[in-house]
Amino acid sequence: MELYGLAGQLRRAAVSVASNIAEGKGRRTDKEFLLFLHHARGSDFEVETQLTIARRLGYIPETEVLRLRNSAGEIARMLNDLIKATTSIAGRQTA
Fold it and tell me: Hey, which of 14, 33, 45, 53 would disulfide with 24, CB 3.0 to 4.6 Å?
């Protein structure tokens, strides 16, 4: 049962990354978009943490965890870049 609970949490966190980006983009202002980008980044970190837990519990081979964590890290870098760019745009709009 523990495995299925963790798998469900991992799935929800992964879906939350894309969902938060989409929901934020649908908001009226860049400041609102930024809030959702930060939520997406938090969900991405949650995915990384859950992968580590799954590995420690022996549910996922280390090679697979490394591959997936590399992907999550790349997503985090892209989100950070998008946050920086959006912050810059939002700053110019209020200046």
Answer: 33
30 exposed, middle or buried (CB, 10 Å; 0-12, 13-18, 19+)?
A: buried
C-beta separation of 14 from 59 below 8 A: no
**pLDDT tens digits for 31-60?**
999 999 999 999 999 999 999 999 999 999
Distance of CA 36 to the CA centre of its chain: 10
pLDDT of residue 14: 97
Distance CA 27, CA 42 (A): 19
The third-level CATH classification (topology) of the domain covering 2-90 is de novo design (two linked rop proteins) (1.20.1440)
Task: Give CA–CA dist 92/95, Å, rounded.
Answer: 5
